[in-house]
Specification:
Blueprint: H1 15-29, E1 38-40, E2 43-45, E3 49-55, E4 58-68, H2 71-90, H3 93-109, H4 111-122, H5 126-149, E5 155-157, E6 167-175, E7 178-182, H6 190-201, E8 205-210, H7 215-228, E9 235-239, H8 242-251, E10 255-261, H9 264-275, E11 283-286, E12 291-295, H10 301-313, E13 323-329, H11 333-345, H12 365-380, E14 384-387, E15 406-409, E16 425-431, H13 434-441, E17 446-447, E18 449-453, H14 459-465, E19 470-473, E20 493-494, E21 513-521
Parallel strand pairs: 7-8, 7-10, 8-9, 10-11, 12-13, 12-18, 13-16, 15-16, 18-19
Antiparallel strand pairs: 1-2, 3-4, 5-6, 6-21, 14-15, 17-20
Helix pairs in contact: 1-4, 2-8, 3-5, 3-7, 4-5, 4-7, 5-6, 10-11
């Protein structure tokens, strides 16, 4: 198929894409109820305990039985990764990169089946699911290309200025060892596959743990790497709770480094654990966002409304990059609100397997309950709900976790301006002074993404003053969302990230390596 899916091209796909997605859904539905084991040391591994995974689309439907890894499974995976590390590290860069590209090609062949699994276990619509699956393909190719292009980051240095002998110097980047990747539920394939690819191509081996809500996508990633021919122990897949399997991985003596995507409290705890012990170990943590958008009186309001709705409500707001804080100049606020209400009213909510539904369910019962609690908190704090606020299960939403998108106007003193809700809730404030809007936009401990709609001459002001790692100006495809490998590096400032380096950036792969200075005297 000549059509190439990205987050920027997904708004007018060909009919063939829908046919292939629905065929993939049928294939996966035929496999409902099967068991999907762990993958350790090149082979399937049965856990001591299994858990039935239900879809948030319809909680009567059991997708399959998935493993709950315990400390014994964690140890087996870490031992396998540690044993495989010397041979994997010793492979030439070209061979590791070739295996990554082979895995990427296999993902491309399976992109519809992977996307169908993402829709079933996360509840995201088909376009979001296909975008995530394709993005992971691009991660594997991008990191292979990047590492080869930089020749493994080895650099010759000048000889020492010593008379009578040759003293040669070189800077060499070396991997760490058995690297742990812990992925979130919202992008369980891309935010697993991206760091897995980065760790592998740089010569580390990997133990990967999926989120408890999304074990199927993790197993599909394991099957891709298995079928691509990665040596036994090079990649290992676990599924289990953060409190048991995740904690055991962080505390394991063979854990050389961790990449984590998830909440601020868990990420900071992991950073502290990795900094302790006999010596500090690297921890790459991406920890969420409370992302703002500023709309000035010079903005294209149609473009702004489209981008705001897509960023605030896409995938039910369950993105670390989702828009949740909206600051609008008072002179255009009423007009923008009118356009936003039209956007919200046009959103079709329901079974994410169906083509006509743009907004599926939230991921689980906890998110569903949190939605009701936040709506009550908004109203108790004096906020005015301009749209939304209802759970839909009791109003014809079947047995899934469906909710309405919320647009709420609230005083800036409301505590929810500071809290990441991870739901389709956006709060609005009318401002008079542009600098005051910027102060409010930066008034958060997080700094992941930020959006802006205004005049072309105002964009430099926005970019120079906003405290965020990813910025978008006048973007209708998404006010704060939509980064893609090779186009927009993705990483946060302040409490949103631990390193100041972005995913798929010029600086990302070096984080999986440590420098060794080599001097040889002839």
């Amino acid at each position: 198929m000549s059509f190439r899916l990205t987050y920027a091209t997904m708004f007018n796909p060909p009919a063939e894409m829908h046919v292939q997605f629905e065929d993939a859904l049928a294939r996966l539905e035929a496999r409902f109820g099967q068991r999907h084991p762990l993958f350790v040391n090149g082979a399937d591994r049965a856990p001591a305990h299994w858990s039935a995974k239900r879809t948030p689309i319809d909680t009567d439907v059991i997708l399959g039985e998935f493993p709950l890894a315990d400390a014994g499974d964690v140890d087996a995976a870490m031992q396998a990764a540690h044993a495989a590390y010397p041979k994997w590290r010793a492979l030439p860069v070209a061979q590791r990169a070739a295996l990554l590209r082979k895995a990427g090609d296999l993902m491309q062949q399976r992109v519809y089946d992977i996307a169908a699994a993402l829709t079933l276990e996360v509840g995201k619509n088909r376009m979001e699911a296909l975008g995530e699956a394709q993005e992971t393909v691009d991660f594997f190719h991008h990191y292979a290309d990047d590492f080869e292009r930089h020749a493994g980051f080895e650099k010759p240095l000048p000889d020492d200025p010593i008379e009578g002998m040759a003293s040669h110097n070189r800077s060499v980047m070396r991997p760490y060892g058995a690297w742990v990747v812990i992925a979130p539920f919202n992008f369980p394939f891309a935010l697993a596959g991206g760091p897995v690819a980065a760790a592998l191509v740089t010569g580390n081996t990997v133990v990967f743990k999926s989120a408890t809500d999304t074990p199927w996508s993790g197993r599909l990633l394991a099957e891709v790497l298995r079928d691509a021919g990665f040596p036994a122990g090079t990649f290992n897949y676990l599924s289990g709770s953060g409190s048991e399997a995740g904690d055991a991985l962080a505390k394991h003596p063979l854990t050389a480094g961790i990449t984590f995507t998830g909440s601020v409290p868990v990420g900071r705890n992991l950073m502290q654990q990795m900094a302790g012990g006999a010596y500090p170990r690297p921890c790459i943590a991406e920890m969420g966002g409370k992302n703002p958008c500023i709309v000035t009186e010079h903005a294209d309001l149609d473009r702004a409304a489209a981008g705001i709705a897509r960023s605030a409500f896409g995938m039910g707001g369950q993105k670390c990059s989702a828009l949740s804080r909206l600051y609008v100049h008072e002179s255009v606020a009423d007009a923008l609100v009118g356009k936003l209400l039209q956007q919200i009213d046009a959103i079709r909510i329901g079974d994410a397997r169906k083509r006509e539904h743009w907004l599926g369910p939230v991921v689980n019962a906890s998110a569903y309950a949190n939605y009701a609690r936040y709506v009550l908190d908004l109203e108790a704090g004096g906020a005015r709900l301009l749209r939304g606020g209802k759970q839909l299960r009791e109003n014809g939403g079947g047995k899934g976790y469906y909710v309405e998108p919320v647009l709420a106007e609230a005083d800036v003193s409301h505590p929810l301006w500071k809290q990441e809700m991870f739901l389709p809730i956006v709060m609005l404030h009318r401002y008079r002074d542009r600098d005051d809007a910027m102060r409010l936009a930066n008034d958060t401990d997080m700094g992941l993404t930020a959006g802006f709609y205004g005049g072309a001459d105002e964009v430099p002001w926005f970019q120079d003053h906003i405290e965020a790692g990813v910025t978008y100006a006048n973007r209708p495809q998404g006010a704060t969302t939509g980064a893609w490998p090779g186009y927009q590096p993705f990483g946060g400032w302040k409490g949103s990230g631990s390193t100041g380096k972005a995913i798929a950036s010029f600086y990302y792969l070096q984080q999986y390596l440590r420098e060794q200075s080599r001097t040889v005297v002839e």
